[in-house]
Write a structure and sequence with these properties.
This protein has 237 residues and is of the alpha/beta class. Helices cover 32% and strands 26% of the residues. It contains seven helices and ten strands. Strands 6-7-8-3-9-10 form a six-stranded mixed sheet. It is globular, with a radius of gyration of 17 Å. The structure holds adenosine-5'-diphosphate. The site of adenosine-5'-diphosphate has 12 residues, from β1, β2 and α1.
């Protein structure tokens, strides 16, 4: 089997709050093959967001490894970790974090300017907005879009730099069921048509079932689904 695009080895994260240690992850081993769509579920406080932050290099583990496309993020310096995050990871959050005073295309331009040092063509912004179905609405401001459309802009923005992996933290958490289904359908489409690797936290079992595999966590540990299944990079039937 080819090397996983993302893997953790005995990942531990302990937060310190005053003099109290809070163990958030207690030895997590997961493996994500290229092209997989994997969901993460588990009760509130079990460590899902902590894991996603470590997978994307937003934070450092207390011990263990996060190997992203062959690079151990736990062993990189801060500069190298930031570079790898910008090049290889796209983030989508429950809050869309769009700049309200800018148009859709303005939001994309800011992201392009921050991340690419002018190396990506502007045409990519337009292609991605067409891909998420918002080509006709790129001159609108976020407030002039539905919440589902705002999340689709956030997804297009996350894909600007052709990330090796898209990490989504409750991407439908702020959406009604119609918009949730549209956003989940888009993620599924990106996975099956573009082979985009996706790891998504969700509390919704129906959303989780749209991926190929569900990782279930409890008390900072993976209780099932951590290892790659043979169906990981094939579309669910
Ligand atoms: P989940 O995403 O599953 O709700 P989290 O990863 O947010 O879980 O949190 C796991 C545990 O770590 C919880 O006990 C939470 O209170 C704690 N925690 C998360 N972030 C911090 C932080 N920055 N400082 C201290 N404790 C934290």
């Amino acid at each position: 089997m080819s090397r996983p695009i993302l893997q953790t080895i005995q990942l531990v994260k302990v937060y310190r709050s005053g003099k109290v240690d809070i163990p958030a992850l207690r030895g997590v081993d997961i493996s994500i093959p290229r092209g997989a769509f994997v969901s993460i579920m588990g009760p509130s406080g079990c460590g899902k967001s902590t894991l996603l932050h470590l997978l994307g290099g937003l934070d450092r583990p207390t011990s263990g490894s996060v190997i992203l496309d062959g690079h151990d993020l736990a062993r990189c310096g801060d500069g190298e970790r930031t570079r790898l995050r910008r090049e290889k990871v796209g983030f989508v959050f429950q809050r869309f974090n769009l700049l309200p005073t800018l148009t859709v295309i303005g939001n994309m331009e800011v992201a392009l300017a921050i991340g690419s040092n002018g190396t990506l063509p502007a045409s990519r912004m337009h292609d991605l907005l067409d891909l998420v179905g918002l080509g006709e609405k790129k001159h609108r401001k976020p407030m002039e879009l539905s919440v589902g459309e705002q999340q689709r802009v956030a997804i297009a923005r996350a894909l600007l730099h052709q990330p090796a992996i898209l990490l989504a933290d409750e991407p439908t958490g702020n959406l009604d069921s119609v918009n949730s289904n549209l956003v989940l359908g888009l993620l599924q489409d990106l996975n099956s048509r573009l082979n985009q690797t996706i790891v998504m936290i969700t509390h919704n079992p129906e959303a989780a079932a749209m991926g190929h595999r569900i990782i279930t966590m409890r008390d900072g540990m993976v209780v099932s689904g951590g290892a790659a299944a043979s169906t990981d990079s094939t579309s669910p039937s």
